[in-house]
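Sequence design from tokenized structure. All designs in this work follow the same two-part layout: the structure record, then the generated sequence. An example of the structure record is given first.
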């Protein structure tokens, strides 16, 4: 399949590589020339603009930071709209505001371009090994057509509903992940303050109802003092901002999301925005005057 890929960042680059490894003909574009050359070395072709990408393919994937970047890549000058033929499909795998997903999709209709929103969850490790979770919104027939291609990058690809529904699911995911990391942080900080080894507490509770994928992924990072980003605080702030905007637009109360936004803003103020979101534990360490590390 001839595929265009726009956005070769921390997630997009390994996702694009998995498509090349699977035998797809990939044409790529990013402002980061080193990332483009890396993909060329793997067998992809490079383009000088989003327009040039769209001219050569039947489906274009975008994987960029936020709503304005998607809009610029797709509808801006030398964007996908300028090079795409009627019948071209855009699959936006970025995590953006679902209201904006619907708006972009509506504008693309006048160019004969159809759209799926297909944000991902799993972070860089799962992008590398091709086991991301993908949540897809749009026409069911388009989902069915591109399911196998999406599965090259994923361990799970689930149809959620109409266009925008993929990003609704992703924002719901990000709410759950943020609150879960905070709960783990609060619990381990409590254990340390009480004089009990937080690593042993983690081992004791991970097999029960409190256990979760988030706990198993993030508690060891906290205990090892390893905050190398798999998913940066600043990106989670972006997602929670989109969640708050979308929720407020439909009068859906999200008090825990608001609380986590303020915690992450405090971490940003302390200079931790480039660290992994497991750094939420540092907020609890600061206010509790404690360090979550193994030992009493």
């Amino acid at each position: 399949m001839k595929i265009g890929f726009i956005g070769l960042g921390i997630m997009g680059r390994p996702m694009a590589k998995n498509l090349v490894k699977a035998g797809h003909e990939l044409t790529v574009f990013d402002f980061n020339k080193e990332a483009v050359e890396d993909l060329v070395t793997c067998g992809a072709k490079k383009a000088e603009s989003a327009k040039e990408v769209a001219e050569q393919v039947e489906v274009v994937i975008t994987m960029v930071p936020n709503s304005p970047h998607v809009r610029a890549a797709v509808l801006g000058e030398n964007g996908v709209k300028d090079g795409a033929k009627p019948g071209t499909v855009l699959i936006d795998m970025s995590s953006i505001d679902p209201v904006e997903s619907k708006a972009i999709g509506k504008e693309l209709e006048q160019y004969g371009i159809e759209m799926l929103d297909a944000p991902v969850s799993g972070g860089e490790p799962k992008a590398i090994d091709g086991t991301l979770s993908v949540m897809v919104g749009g026409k069911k027939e388009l989902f069915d057509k591109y399911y196998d291609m999406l599965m090259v990058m994923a361990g799970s690809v689930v149809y959620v509903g109409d266009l925008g529904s993929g990003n609704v699911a992703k924002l719901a995911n990000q709410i759950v992940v943020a609150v879960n990391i905070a709960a783990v942080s609060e619990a381990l900080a409590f254990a340390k303050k009480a004089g009990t080894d937080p690593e042993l507490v983690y081992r004791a509770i991970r097999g029960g109802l409190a256990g979760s994928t988030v706990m198993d992924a993030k508690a060891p990072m906290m205990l090892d003092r390893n905050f190398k980003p798999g998913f940066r605080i600043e990106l989670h702030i972006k997602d929670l901002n989109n969640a708050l905007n979308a929720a407020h637009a439909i009068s859906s109360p999200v008090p825990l999301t608001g609380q986590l936004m303020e915690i992450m803003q405090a971490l940003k103020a302390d200079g931790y925005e480039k660290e992994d979101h497991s750094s939420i534990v540092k907020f609890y360490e600061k206010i509790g005057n404690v360090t979550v590390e193994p030992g009493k």
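The CA atoms of residues 51 and 270 lie 40 Å apart. We note this feature because it recurs in several other targets discussed in the main text.
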